[in-house]
Amino acid sequence: xxxTDRLRxxxxxxxxxxxxxxxxxxxxxxxxxxxLCVGLFIVPDMVLREKLGxxxxxxxxxxxxxxxxxxxxxxxxxxxxxxxxxEDDGKIKALLRDLLVxxxxxxxxxxxxxxLCWAHIRTGLAIEDNAxxxxxxxxxxxxxxxxxxxxxxxxLKQFYRITAARIVRPAARLVxxxxxxxxxxxxxxxxxxxxxxxxxxxxxxxxxxxxxKDIECVDYRELKSEMLRYLWPVAAMTVVTAFQLxxxxxxxxxxxxxxxxxxxxMAAVLGNIPMWAxxxxxxxxxxxxxxxxxxxxxxxxxxxxxxxxxxxxxxxRHIARVxxxxxxxxxxxxxxxxxxxxx
Amino acid sequence: MxxxxxxxxxxxxxxxxxxxxxxxLGYLVPVILLEVGVLMVLLKPGSSAxxxxxxxxxxxxxxxxxxxxxxxxxxxxxxxxx
Lengths: 343, 82
What we know:
The complex is a heterodimer. Chain A has helices at about 1-45, 50-65, 65-85, 90-125, 130-155, 160-180, 185-205, 225-255, 260-270, 275-295, 300-310, 315-325, 335-340. In chain A, helix 2 packs parallel to helix 7, helix 4 (about 90-125) runs antiparallel to helix 5 (about 130-155) and helix 6 runs antiparallel to helix 7. Chain A is an all-alpha fold. By secondary structure, chain B is mainly alpha-helical. Chain B is elongated. Helix content of chain B is about 75%, strand content about 0%. The longest helix of chain B is centred in the last third of the chain and has 27 residues, at about 50-80. The mean pLDDT of chain B is about 80. Classes of the chains: A mainly alpha, B mainly alpha. At the A-B interface, helix 8, helix 10, helix 11 and helix 13 of A face helix 1, helix 2 and helix 3 of B.
């Protein structure tokens, strides 16, 4: 009882942003241990060295394909958060329903586009295995749903569920990789696919509360022009950043030798490890700032704190460099040396 | 450095879009398009116009410009400019 009170007082003193960031930090480190084991001990054994660079590009490609729904999801996150502040469950249900319908439509269109572009993708990434086609198709289909489910959970402030998903994600990947590790790149992609599938199932469980039959849908048509005005800048922001994130590894894969693109993959993955504090905060920042803004409060303090947190790297930087040196391939030394700037 | 500035950019994007303030697009869009455009022109398959260090240097330069722009925007906002 005493411990619970102390914990509650600690939580109140920290405030929602830092409390949830702290929980996310712990969950993310648990997830990182699993991801590190996978990255260091399982992936190099199951994926041939010259194919490793393709993995990063493929995963980024799937994220790029999901961009249209990410834009819609961003707008939905903002307005669903606003409806939550106004305690308007009817509008939340109506918005959720509309999103489900549009996501279902996008899925078919993406499947067909992938089928048409497959020859180019396969040539560009130098992959011959047909099984990858099916896994990539499944990955793209799941990619339709995952950003929407994640953003809705953030908009609805389901922070504990989002934090728990951070552990569910790598655990699902590890299990699948251990089961089918002999399938090389196809096995690796199946493991990568297991992550969003597990997270999706987990997050959708939290959205069911707003889809109950006793909640009547309330029309939000009067907000549609306002939503469209919000959508265009969000679309520009999302498309440009997704383009950058997709094109960098793609060019590296296409233009540099396989060993160097593999080195980039290892350096980029391990280089993200020291950024401990900031990514733990990012999933909660939008909803909390939006809530304060819609409530007419100043958001400057939270903004400055978030930017300061983005610069926290301290000793973790050194640890990541040691890991980079040990994990990188000797022939990729030039890339690793250059990408040391990552951490 | 790349990862640090990427996180700063994400924080800035999150905060400003939550407050429906999209002035940051004025520097974000041109810088990223310029970086990606230059990379695509220089990095044709089989070409040796850009070395690995040059590529990472270019990615880094684009992010440094973004970092400076964010700093200026925060300072201007602190002086009541936004």
